[in-house]
Design brief:
The complex is a heterodimer of chains A (217) and B (584).
Chain A (H helix, E strand, L loop, with lengths): L1 H33 L1 H4 L3 E4 L2 E5 L7 E3 L17 E3 L28 H18 L26 E2 L1 H15 L3 H10 L1 E2 L10 E3 H11 L4
Antiparallel strand pairs in A: 1-2, 3-4, 5-7, 6-7
Helix pairs in contact in A: 4-5
Chain B lengths: L1 H29 L7 H14 L10 H24 L16 H12 L15 H31 L9 H27 L9 E4 L5 E4 L5 H9 L20 H26 L2 H28 L2 H6 L22 H14 L14 H12 L10 H21 L4 E2 L2 E2 L2 H27 L1 H4 L7 H15 L12 E2 L10 E2 L1 H30 L16 H32 L5
Antiparallel strand pairs in B: 1-2, 3-4, 5-6
The chains are: A mainly alpha (217), B mainly alpha (584).
């Protein structure tokens, strides 16, 4: 029994060193050597400054302007933000697009709050996009546009969602619709082996490409 | 949905194709035969035995084997608890997190030592890199190895020609880690990091977004941990939202490989079992029973999620699939996974006792969430955890043999071993312990005020949260209806001002620990009892256990035990939710 206890103690210490420190540190070294950018979070830099990660959604918003021409403030004196129509909008987020405090919305299927939230998001989506795409109906609004993702930082939107928003982008940026649609195609991540998963469009990368092709003056 | 079922069909075909090669490999490893890694690892293996002061040739009877398992796990528990309690003074803690409260550490420690990996802790908001890498990852490796140890010990007991040896625990443990889990983890971790899963010791990155907002990218040595988290049916995430987080599971390719990693070892172990018993058809029969239940679950959950939730319908929002959009219930699901890969993952992770999630199970439809819950309620024997799934299934096999024996009026025999009163008593305890633990704990948690403090959503959903929590913990799964909480962090990220809900933390921790080790001891006792029996040759009246008839009987027993135990409870939660359009 004592010998068994000694082996138990030794083995836990041994595995802690080998599988904890050894494996973790050695693999970090290998990863940093082989895939430095990916291992560090797929960061995107502009002029040497990190502006985001291609795997993490961020909000594309602007201050809401009131009737007096000044930014509207909330009760705490912070500027109220609204979607910036010149950029593709990512999926709604329950965390305010926070990648360092992640949680699910945890809305149950029979939740009154969930009903109110999707209803509001549907109205908001129509308000934002309908002026630029008169034929848009509630039935055509893709479900990813009005539900929160799991991570709160889902980097992608569906193809249908991107195609609807393309009308708005083309109008606001004064671009031919075809050019925006080409950009969407170029930034669509397809299924793995053509079979697994769902296609999605990376919003941050698409917006960066837009800014490159048609900068906002 | 046709595209969805095509994906599932191809995925299942790949799992079936991998079962034999991986199964043969593991059978060779645990029978002490040479494998292609032997030249590389043989020396390290021998040195390890010296360092651990063990004699790999020493044979353990069931009591010695069980004592080794318990002692090893006890020391693991103490060491992990100490690591979680001393976060403040650890290196590799760039964000300077202090330890979470003691009750949360108690829960987390029990969770990882029992291969449950239930998350009350919040990953990136709670733990240092050191605690994740040196604390949690080590348990991610050794707990599935312990599961395999118990399985191969059980297998040796079944095939033993009158003797008492079940093999050597330390040798099985070291081989499981060196030859199976570590090499596969390295390969998978490389795949993951090549796609964007983070692996760095660097500080979190604060940045200003294009719109001028601020964002902090939490990073860390994630890929190395996530690889073994999936392969070892562990499931505890590096990040709070687990495999929904793009830094854990960034694209369609990683989702495919992580999903495969979750199920391939438990599936292949059925072949290993067939090979080690010298009766390959027995392995396939068990595999077939598991596969049938798995496919039935998938066939329910995908249409359920595609249908959408009562909340969506009540709001009058669209749920139909349209060109370029999946439709369905996408609340809590990632675009790249869509309905199919979220639902397939939810099924796979719950039947295998993995417990990692790539979508929010709490937001599933009533019927959709009845599937993961049923995966848990069938006692994790549908593939199940690494090792644990098959040894638990073997208890059901023996039970089915006993019931079959009663029906035809003969002494039940399994592979030539008579199943008698002592075995049946142990088996019944083993089969009933976990369901009883679930009913008692979830009942208690619903009955007392301290228990209902953990609930987030109202109505039947609150009951579902509680039932799911104790189903998951008692079955050492670890997935959750994540609204259910035992840890409150008002100033997240970081543990300042945080507090645990002691009732949920302690009850859950105790449940996970007991539900891990009591069945292990019972299984080893059955193995010890079978090992001592003579093998009697099969006669014309022997009930065969490798036929479709037996597979159906086995499925029936599994469903019956799970359904009879949990049907009333499931009625109160997910089933009522799927039958009503009422909102709460």
């Amino acid at each position: 029994m004592r010998r068994m206890a000694l082996s138990a103690l030794l083995s836990v210490i041994f595995f802690t060193v080998v599988l904890g420190l050894g494996y973790g540190l050695a693999f970090t070294g290998v990863a940093q050597l082989l895939f430095p950018g990916k291992a560090d979070g797929s960061k995107i830099s502009i002029d040497g400054k990190v502006v985001g990660s291609s795997l993490i959604a961020q909000s594309f918003s602007e201050p809401k302007i009131g009737k007096n021409g000044k930014p509207v403030l909330d009760e705490e004196g912070e500027e109220v933000l609204v979607a910036n129509p010149a950029y593709f909008q990512p999926r709604p987020s329950q965390t305010g697009y926070s990648p360092n405090t992640t949680y699910f919305s945890n809305r149950g299927p029979n939740s009154v709050a969930a009903r109110e939230e999707v209803r509001e998001r549907l109205a908001e989506y129509l308000r934002l996009n309908k002026p630029f795409d008169r034929s848009l109906t509630a039935e055509a609004v893709p479900v990813d546009a009005i539900t929160t993702s799991g991570s709160g930082v889902d980097p992608e939107i569906s193809e249908a969602n991107a195609r609807i928003q393309a009308h708005r982008i083309a109008a606001v940026r004064k671009l031919p619709l075809a050019q925006v649609e080409d950009l969407i195609s170029a930034h669509t991540n397809g299924r793995f082996l053509g079979v697994f998963g769902e296609p999605g469009i990376n919003v941050l990368e698409l917006n960066l490409a837009l800014d490159k092709e048609a900068p906002i003056k | 949905m046709a595209q969805g079922f095509l994906q599932v069909a191809i995925f299942v075909a790949i799992v079936i194709a991998l079962t034999k090669p991986l199964g043969v490999y593991m059978a060779r490893v645990f029978s002490g035969q040479r494998v292609f890694l032997s030249p590389v690892l043989g020396g390290a293996e021998r040195l390890t035995y010296k360092a651990l002061r063990v004699d790999p040739d020493e044979e353990h009877d069931w009591k010695a084997y069980a004592k080794s398992v318990v002692l090893f796990s006890l020391v693991s528990w103490v060491v992990l608890y100490l690591i979680l309690r001393t976060q403040g003074i650890q290196p590799l803690n760039p964000t300077g997190f202090h330890s979470a409260p003691w009750d949360v550490s108690f829960n987390t420690t029990s969770s990882f030592v029992s291969n449950t990996n239930w998350q009350f802790y919040g990953g990136e908001t709670t733990l240092s890199y050191f605690a994740q890498m040196v604390g949690l990852t080590v348990q991610n490796f050794v707990t599935p190895a312990v599961g395999i140890c118990v399985l191969v010990a059980m297998t040796r007991g079944i095939v033993s020609r009158a003797g008492s040896s079940l093999g050597n625990f330390w040798q099985d443990l070291v081989r499981g880690v060196y030859y199976v889990l570590l090499p596969l983890s390295i390969v998978l971790a490389l795949v993951l990091v090549s796609q964007g899963v983070v692996q760095t010791l660097g500080h979190a990155v604060s940045l200003t977004t294009l719109s001028g907002g601020s964002q902090v990218l939490a990073l860390g040595p994630a890929a190395s941990q996530i690889a073994i988290k999936q392969l070892g049916t562990n499931g505890g995430g590096f990040f709070n939202v687990n495999s929904a987080m793009p830094f854990e599971n960034p694209n369609q390719l990683t989702n495919f490989f992580e999903l495969l990693a979750i199920i391939m070892i438990p599936a292949a172990l059925t072949y290993t079992y067939g090979r080690m018993t010298g009766r390959q058809r027995e392995g396939w029969a068990i595999f077939a029973a598991m596969l049938a239940i798995y496919i039935a679950f998938i066939a329910v959950i995908i249409p359920a999620e595609q249908h959408g939730t009562p909340a969506q319908h009540a709001a009058g929002t669209p749920t139909a699939a349209i060109d370029g959009s999946t439709g369905g219930n996408m609340e809590g699901k990632e675009q790249r996974n869509g309905i199919t890969d979220s639902a397939l993952w939810a099924t796979t992770t719950t039947v295998t006792s993995n417990g990692s999630v790539n979508s929010a199970h709490e937001s599933y439809t009533g019927l959709g969430s009845a599937v993961p819950m049923s995966g848990l309620a069938t006692s994790e024997v549908v593939f199940g955890g690494v090792g644990t799934g098959l040894y638990s299934m073997l208890l059901f096999v023996l039970l089915a043999v006993f019931i079959g024996g009663l029906m035809v009026g003969r002494t039940p025999e399994y592979l030539g071993k008579k199943i008698q009163a002592r075995e049946i008593k142990l088996i019944s305890l083993g089969v009933l312990f976990t369901p009883l633990a679930v009913l008692v704990t979830s009942g208690l948690a619903m009955a007392v005020r301290a228990g209902t403090r953990s609930i987030y959503e109202s109505g039947p959903q609150g009951f579902s949260e509680t039932l799911y929590a104790y189903l998951s913990q008692a079955n050492n799964n670890g997935s959750a209806f994540a609204g259910y909480t035992g840890f409150v962090q008002p100033d997240a990220p970081g543990n300042s001002g945080s507090y645990g809900i002691s009732f949920a933390d302690l009850l859950g921790g105790a449940t996970m620990t007991l539900a891990r080790f009591i069945p292990i001891i019972l299984v080893l006792a059955v193995a010890g009892s079978l090992a001592n029996k003579k093998v009697s040759p099969a006669g014309p009246g022997t009930m065969r256990t490798d036929t479709p008839t037996f597979v159906i009987l086995l499925i029936g027993v599994v469903i019956l035990v799970g359904a009879l135990t949990f049907f009333p409870a499931l009625l109160l939660g997910p089933i009522v939710q799927s039958l009503t359009t009422r909102l709460f």
